[in-house]
Write a structure and sequence with these properties.
The chain is mostly helical and 172 residues long. The chain is 81% helix and 0% strand. Helix 2 runs antiparallel to helix 4, helix 2 packs parallel to helix 5 and helix 4 packs antiparallel against helix 5. The chain starts with a helix and ends with a helix.
């Protein structure tokens, strides 16, 4: 006999024994509970994914703003580099690399923090809630951080590379 058939039979017996209270009880199987739990977990994952995506967007905009300020503050340096022969690609590479480095360091800090929280939960919960951080997750987190830095660092790098050396040297 299947679990659903057994649950239906139990419900029929309870309903026959308590006809006026039939609406006060339910009979469910573990499969039914697991289906509802799976639905809740999917919604939870979508919400967390949305929060994570929003955090990446905000972080990327923050990196872009930092790099724009860096380009503005270093306008004379860019002008000097261009005056002594640096090409647009050299300036572009310098600022994209700087942006990726800033976000990569942030990614390393985030991965380290996540690993630490996982270890702390494992220590506090003990055997009741074992924790494990797969290496691919750490590499993926770090890779996303560097990719966000590269993506959001391209615009400031293009602005730096487009600067005219004469105007950059006059900038105060």
């Amino acid at each position: 006999m299947s679990a659903d058939a057994a649950a239906d039979e139990v419900f029929a017996v309870l309903k026959s024994l308590h006809p006026q209270n039939a609406q006060d009880f339910i009979v469910d199987t573990q499969e039914g509970l697991l289906k509802r739990l799976d639905g809740i977990l999917i919604v939870f994952q979508l919400i967390l994914g949305g929060v994570g995506g929003l955090s990446l967007l905000v972080g990327g905009i923050g990196i872009m703003n930092i790099m724009l300020v860096s380009v503005t503050e270093r306008t004379r340096e860019i002008g000097i580099r261009k005056a002594v022969g640096a090409k647009r690609g050299d300036i572009l590479l310098q600022f994209v690399t700087e942006s990726m480095t800033v976000s990569g360091v942030g990614g390393l800090i985030g991965v380290g923090f996540g690993y630490g929280v996982s270890k702390l939960v494992g220590i506090v919960a003990g055997e009741n809630l074992p924790t494990f951080v797969p290496p691919w997750a750490a590499f993926l987190g770090f890779g996303f951080a560097v990719a966000i830095g590269m993506f959001f660092g391209i615009y400031p790098a293009f602005r730096a590379a487009k600067l005219d050396p004469i105007d950059a040297l006059r900038f105060e």
